[in-house]
Design a protein that fits this description.
This is AcrR family transcriptional regulator. Pfam families: TetR_N. Keywords: DNA-binding. The protein is mostly helical. The protein folds into two domains: about 55 residues, Arc Repressor Mutant, subunit A (Orthogonal Bundle), CATH 1.10.10.60; about 120 residues, Orthogonal Bundle (Tetracycline Repressor, domain 2), CATH 1.10.357. About 70% of the residues lie in helices and about 0% in strands. Helix 5 runs antiparallel to helix 9, helix 6 crosses helix 8 and helix 7 crosses helix 8. The radius of gyration is 21 Å and the shape is elongated.
């Protein structure tokens, strides 16, 4: 029983560390979020952080997973229109936490190495994201895709990730607006879904 209690406390402590790290990175930025700062917020030593996560890279990878879990806490929409709005809303919320966006972009580059702790995270996340985009679009019978679902999902994902890099350099970039416009181009209303123009009476 004591062992189970210790395990539960360890899981709870680990979750507390991740939430604190997510908050520190979101407020102070990736470069300013040192292990020392995160440890101070949680009330532990940097060595204790490494006891739970092994390395700074593993900690930051789990921070991104925690951020994704927050997004998944919201009920996933079934209607394609709502799914599109939900995806755009996630991008809009990302603009409120530049430090997390910077962390995501930097780890994405490092995770090209198959041995990097975040490599599997990015592979799995990309697959889930593409599947969710493709499934949402396939359900909409009133619109017609200009590309096959998987290719379209990859294009949207690539543009979304690229826009984050542009936005970090130039915060005036309208990430959600551009993605929304791209979706309308890739998935326009079918001719059958467009109401005919109102008839005019001849003089």
């Amino acid at each position: 029983m004591a062992r189970r209690g210790s395990y539960a406390k360890g899981v709870a402590r680990r979750g507390e560390i991740l939430e604190s790290a997510l908050d520190v990175i979101g407020r102070k930025g990736y470069q300013n979020a040192s292990l020392k700062q995160i440890a101070e917020v949680v009330g532990v030593t940097p060595a204790a952080l490494l006891h739970y996560f092994g390395s700074k890279e593993e900690l930051f990878t789990e921070v991104l997973r925690t951020r994704d879990e927050h997004d998944l806490d919201t009920p996933q929409p079934v209607d394609p229109v709502d799914a599109k709005a939900a995806f755009v809303d996630v991008i809009r919320r990302n603009a409120e936490v530049p430090g997390v966006v910077e962390l995501f972009s930097r780890l994405a580059v490092d995770a090209v190495d198959p041995e990097h702790p975040a490599h599997r995270y990015f592979l799995d996340r990309s697959e889930r994201l593409r599947e969710s985009i493709a499934v949402a679009f396939e359900r909409d019978e009133q619109r017609r895709a200009t590309l096959d679902p998987d290719t379209m999902a990859r294009v949207i994902q690539a543009v979304s990730d690229g826009l984050q890099l542009q936005w970090m350099i130039d915060p005036t970039v309208d990430m959600p607006g551009i993605i929304e416009s791209l979706m309308d181009v890739l998935y326009p209303p079918s001719p059958r879904a467009t109401p005919p123009p109102a008839a005019t009476q001849e003089d």
